[in-house]
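Tokens in:
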């Protein structure tokens, strides 16, 4: 897990929602910005992987951005934004393991057929016979 928080830049804005009169005058919403291609913490392969997996969150200039306005204080929103962006990037770096195709064994096939036969017999026995 890489901590690249030194490369992040922040913008603040007025957030919507709870806060009463405070919401109209204090900029508590935080938008965190990170330029993926200029990062020194990741190599080129990792940058390509991040850009591919997070292409919906990265704008045309190659900047990954995330807005947080959950808390009523700017500091808490800033800390949450840092945690979330680090979590998102670290999840993007995980390469899933390839699935190896397998076939069911003979016993599994036989067990399935036996179960089907038992159910079929049970339903057959429910029928009204003349």
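Residues out:
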């Amino acid at each position: 897990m890489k901590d690249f928080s030194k490369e992040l830049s922040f913008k603040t804005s007025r957030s919507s929602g709870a806060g009463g009169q405070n919401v109209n005058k204090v900029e508590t919403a935080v938008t965190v910005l990170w330029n993926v291609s200029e990062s020194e913490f990741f190599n080129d392969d990792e940058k390509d992987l991040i850009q591919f997996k997070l292409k919906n969150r990265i704008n045309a200039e190659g900047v990954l951005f995330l807005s947080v306005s959950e808390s009523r204080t700017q500091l808490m929103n800033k800390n949450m934004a840092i945690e979330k962006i680090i979590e998102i990037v670290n999840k993007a770096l995980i390469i899933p393991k390839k699935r190896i195709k397998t076939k069911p064994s003979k016993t599994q096939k036989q067990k399935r057929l036996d179960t089907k036969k038992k159910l079929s017999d049970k339903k057959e026995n429910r029928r009204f016979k003349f």
